[in-house]
UniProtKB/TrEMBL annotation:
Residues 31-199 form the Helicase ATP-binding domain. GO terms for biological process: DNA recombination; DNA repair; DNA replication; SOS response. Signal peptide: none annotated. Keywords: ATP-binding, DNA damage, DNA recombination, DNA repair, DNA-binding, Helicase, Hydrolase, Isomerase, Metal-binding, Nucleotide-binding, Zinc. This is DNA helicase RecQ. GO terms for cellular component: bacterial nucleoid; cytoplasm; replisome. Residues 220-371 form the Helicase C-terminal domain. It catalyses: Couples ATP hydrolysis with the unwinding of duplex DNA by translocating in the 3'-5' direction. It is an enzyme of class 5 (isomerase). Its cofactor is Zn(2+); Mg(2+). GO terms for molecular function: 3'-5' DNA helicase activity; ATP binding; DNA binding; four-way junction helicase activity; hydrolase activity; metal ion binding. CDD domains: DEXHc_RecQ, SF2_C_RecQ. The lineage of its organism: Bacteria, Bacillati, Actinomycetota, Actinomycetes, Micrococcales.
């Protein structure tokens, strides 16, 4: 690995073009490999700085860097962001008019492009392949490489065809990048993209600026409103819901309560989706309420929170979705409200899903891992990273279980009461019921349904008056999460599992968690917002710079972060540069932006005094 010296061309590009001082993490090693013609497979968390890993080699090596990306709707922004840095970039995809396409092709063949973004389906066309044959290629970058994984959530069949790159251009280096962390996905990418000989770079997947919180779901709309009002007022964020209907309903509720929110789901016309996405990227402080159809490749660096109103189906999904918060490295919140109904619903969805038994078992395993994360009394961050095979010492201090450790209690007897109720209903009566009836029986409630089925005659009737209804629901939830109970059929009736018998026979202890009495807020002095951690005296200048940036972005019709990111504005507000030389020292101020915005920024600083 080359050490970074001032004469290193890669470091020179980093400083001159991007305005950054030093490479982060594995960037230097990855870039060195690709600059020298080697293949690389890069796993880095969102916000880790993957783009520089192919952009810099494309600028250093002769020829054009070809970037394969599935994110057609974002290519224009990516090209605009590069243009703002003075990098010559263009894209080829189905949205271009034939005239624009010809202009891009001409520029490419004339050697006038540093980077060319293409959609994967484009590489299936003879015309595009022939076009690339006529130009020197610096490298192929395969972004969002996990799209090649057939079992993953973002599978794109066109990605399977990308092995053509290696066959057709064996001497051009390839770099595949993803934020999907599991070893299984990595192996699948290497195999399907013919990258087994590539160097693998696996970064730490920790996102230290994200505070993880998983709260018991009680009144989700109110809980969400509390979060947005008390901790993230006026800030950009994403709220994930499972269904289109709940997206619409939640967005409407937020709007009724004075919060600027937009819906996004696959049922909306493409033009509405595109318009909402564009507004989310361009305007400050919008909340996007969306299904998981939204978010991949969204580069917006200042998403301050990601909230889940429904349980994600897997830890991978949860990590990807929450990872969209805080790409700029500033404090951010990942918040999930989770309850019994989520577990029942997810188990039902798996049971009624298409596919064979092996597929359902696979879905079940994913859900189990997600439930284990929800129910843990240990550090969430440590458990999340352990899932991806990475060690963390725990006690991170910025997840809810570290901020307010939940108590564990011996739930064996409570578990036995629930399980024997289910057992008796089934064995003595041949009946199956859902959670509601089981809890009513335990509490000895005199309801019409209890009388109709003569459940007051069961020996377990009323044995549960030591716990409240909510506590019983939490017990059932944890039994479902631990696989000691499961649900069947469209009504979600409770049934025993193979492991239930061990608890009933007193051969197994059941540990449960008490929910902390008060909801956890972000740690003191760590408020997750863009102005956080700025000295109070610098906040007015920071806000003035933001206002200037908003005007500039609007005039140009580009997202604000393309002008300057929040982290750079904070750097300027702290440094208060009085000259262009000083301004150039701030991280994120490269040559091109200095020339373009330098005087205007200095004027804002001078005016703020
Ligand atoms: P990823 O694609 O891995 O999610 P990005 O490439 O979008 O991450 O980078 C995330 C943010 O970090 C961007 O704002 C980027 O400009 C910034 N960044 C990347 N590398 C560096 C670096 N070496 N120094 C400072 N900032 C960096
Ligand atoms: Zn923790």
């Amino acid at each position: 690995m080359a050490t970074a010296t001032a004469t290193d061309p890669a470091l020179d590009v980093l400083r001159r073009v991007f305005g950054y001082d030093a490479f982060r993490g594995e960037q230097a090693a990855v870039i060195d490999t690709v600059v020298n013609g080697g293949d690389a497979l890069v796993l880095m968390p969102t916000g880790g700085g993957k783009s520089l890993c192919y952009q810099i080699p494309a600028l250093v090596r002769p020829g054009t860097g070809v970037v394969v990306s599935p994110l057609i709707a974002l290519m224009q922004d990516q090209v605009d962001a590069l243009a703002a840095l003075g990098v010559r970039a263009a894209f080829l995809n189905s949205t271009l008019s034939s005239e624009d396409r010809r202009a891009v092709e001409r520029a490419l063949v004339a050697g006038e492009l540093d980077l060319l973004y293409v959609a994967p389906e484009g590489l299936r066309s003879r015309a595009t392949l022939d076009l690339l044959d006529r130009t020197p290629i610096a490298l192929f970058a395969i972004d969002e490489a996990h799209c090649v994984s057939q079992w993953g959530h973002d599978f794109r069949p066109d990605y399977l065809e990308l092995s053509v790159l290696h066959q057709r251009w064996p001497s051009v280096p390839r770099i595949a990048l993803t934020a999907t962390a599991t070893a299984a996905t990595r192996a699948e990418i290497a195999q399907r993209l013919d990258l087994e000989g590539a160097r693998h770079f696996v970064s730490s997947f920790d996102r230290p600026n994200i505070t993880y919180r998983i709260v018991p779901k009680d009144r989700p709309d109110k809980q969400l409103l509390d979060l947005l009002r008390t901790e993230h007022a006026g800030e950009a964020g994403i709220v994930y819901c499972l269904s289109r209907a709940s997206v619409e309903r939640t967005a409407a509720t937020l709007v009724e309560n004075g919060i600027q929110a937009l819906p996004y789901h696959a049922g909306l016309p493409a033009s509405v989706r595109a318009a909402n996405q564009s507004r989310f990227l361009r305007e400050d402080g919008l909340v996007m309420v969306a299904t998981i159809a939204f978010g991949m490749g969204i580069d917006k660096p200042d998403v301050r929170f990601v909230a889940h109103l429904d349980l994600p189906k897997s830890v991978e999904g949860y990590y990807q979705e929450t990872g969209r918060a805080g790409r700029d490295g500033l404090p951010s919140t990942a918040w999930l409200a989770y309850g019994l109904a989520d577990v029942v619903q997810q188990r039902k969805l798996i049971e009624t899903s298409d596919g064979d038994a092996a597929h359902r078992r696979n879905l079940g395993r994913h859900l189990d891992a997600m439930l284990a994360l929800c129910e843990t009394v240990e550090c969430r961050r440590a458990q999340l990273l352990a899932y991806f095979g990475q060690e963390h010492p725990g006690a991170c201090g910025t997840c809810d279980t570290c901020l307010a450790p939940p108590e564990a209690w011996d739930g064996t007897v409570a578990a036995q009461k629930v399980l024997s109720t289910v057992f008796r209903l089934d064995r003595e009566r041949g009946q199956r019921f859902g959670v509601g009836q089981v809890v009513d029986i335990l509490l000895g409630r005199d309801t019409e349904k209890v009388r109709r089925f003569r459940h007051q005659e069961l020996s377990v009737f009323g044995v549960g008056d030591d716990l409240s209804e909510n506590e019983w629901r939490a017990v059932v939830r944890q039994l479902l999460a631990q696989g000691l109970l499961t649900v069947e059929g469209a009504h979600g009736t409770l049934v025993l599992t193979a492991a239930s018998g061990e608890v009933l026979a007193r051969r197994r202890e059941v540990r449960m968690r008490h929910e902390p009495a008060r909801p956890v807020r972000a740690a003191k002095g760590r408020k997750a917002s863009a102005a956080a951690e700025l000295a109070e005296a610098d906040v007015p200048l920071f806000e003035a710079l933001r206002a200037w940036r908003a005007g500039e972005a609007k005039t140009q019709g580009v997202p604000a972060y393309i002008v300057f990111g929040d982290a750079t504005l904070r750097g300027i507000a702290t440094a208060r540069p009085g000259s262009l030389e000083r301004l150039a020292l701030v991280s994120g101020v490269g040559e091109n932006k200095l020339a373009r915005y330098g005087d205007a920024v200095l004027a804002v600083v001078a005016e703020a005094g």
